[in-house]
Amino acid sequence: MVNQTKDSIRIVNNWDLNQVQRDEKLEILNMWETKLGKDDFKTILEICSNFIYYSEGVTSLAYKDIFNKNYSVTPFFEQSLFLPLRRKERIESSVDMFSIFRLANRIDANKTHVNGAVDYLEKYKASKEFNSKAIKEFDQEVVKGEVSIHGLQTKLEAYRANRKIRSSIEKQISKLQAIKARKKERIDKSIKEFHQNYYSIKNLIIIDDFIGTGDSVVQFLKKLDKTIRGSKITINLFLWVIEASESGMEAIEDTVKELEIEIHISFYKKTIDVLAGDIIFSRDNIEEVKALIEKVNKQNRLKPSPYCKNHAIASFVNAPNNNLTLLSEESPTWKALFLRTKRNKVEREVSIKDMRDTYQYLRE
How many CB atoms neighbour CB 363 within 10 A? Predict the structure, then answer.
């Protein structure tokens, strides 16, 4: 680490890292300096000086700020449910970040639904349909029961003097009333649970980390709209994130208009495009910087993500796929400063024996 510059040390020290992590980042920057040369490295280092790393501690502070900025006294909080932005069954980074949000703001676990908003609304819809059907059936049974009881009461009056017949009729009336009471008790319990778990919830507060292209939110909104359209479920949607890009917000706004739904978005910080003019570099030399970035990518066979928005951020969980490529992607000749770890599902090989065993299990 002899070649470490003071600027590299200063930049790394700005990130909330332990000593081992600092040494790792300094080693990477040292390798970049050796590979790029002093002038090109100075340009890349300028980008790194604007890199924001959200450690668990910094993430907690950001989420506290968002919560305090949006928190309202009852009934808003009491009528709210907190959820991570989820689209897949596996653990996503939003789930890890959601845990930090919940702990930082001391959210009661009973006010969360970790499987996400779409899953919650699908269950809401199913419960609503089930209970609506149950109420209609109960109401019909009540009417029939009242008719039967009224008929028996009329009969009772006619046989008031006959103790044996009167006793039999009274037993029939009591039996019908007891059946009605038991059914009422069961449906009351079901309706109470529906109210507590669903109807009393007026706000869904969805927690995520970063909005880059906005694609994840757009796909989420489309799936959510498909779930609740025509269901008469009315609920307020809120999305709270740490950072959001302007282009991502525009993509979400276009989708919101198209679907005719409403979502209120709040963020801790606006994400910058490090290759936009007059952000880090002036408009006069931004093309030179872009040419340098393209050269580094080409020389090291770094393939930009289709979601790349030239951001410079990462959390303790992962780096987003919209980062500037050389910051979070690597190759045999390039080491990422904050590596984006892939979470794509890996298809495992299934042998003939595995297939045979599975068939046998399913046939048993």
Answer: 6
CA distance 79 to 58: 28
**Interatomic CA distance for residues 11 and 267, integer angstroms:** 25
Structure tokens, 35: 């590979």
Beta carbons within 8 Å of 187's beta carbon, 6+ residues apart: 134, 135, 138
CA separation for the pair 27, 9 (Å, rounded): 10
**CA-CA distance, 162 to 211, in Å (whole number)?**
81
Q: Could you tell me if 302 and 335 are in contact, meaning their C-beta atoms sit under 8 angstroms apart?
A: no
CB 138 within 8 A of CB 183: yes
pTM of the entire structure?
0.84
Is residue 243 left, alpha or beta, with left meaning phi > 0 and alpha meaning psi from -120 to 50?
A: beta
Distance, in Å, from the CA atom of 196 to the CA atom of 290, rounded to the nearest integer, reads 55
Cα separation, 224 vs 47, in Å, equals 37
CA distance 15 to 22: 8
Structure tokens given for 292: 């340098």
Place of tokens 């009315």: 234
* Alpha helices for the chain (secondary structure H): 6-13, 19-36, 38-48, 56-70, 93-104, 117-158, 163-194, 215-228, 246-259, 286-299, 325-328, 352-363
Residue 120, token pair as written in the block: 């919650």
pLDDT in tens, 218-264: 999 999 999 988 888 889 999 999 999 999 999 999 999 999 999 99
Residue 274, CA atoms < 13 Å, CB-side half-sphere: 24
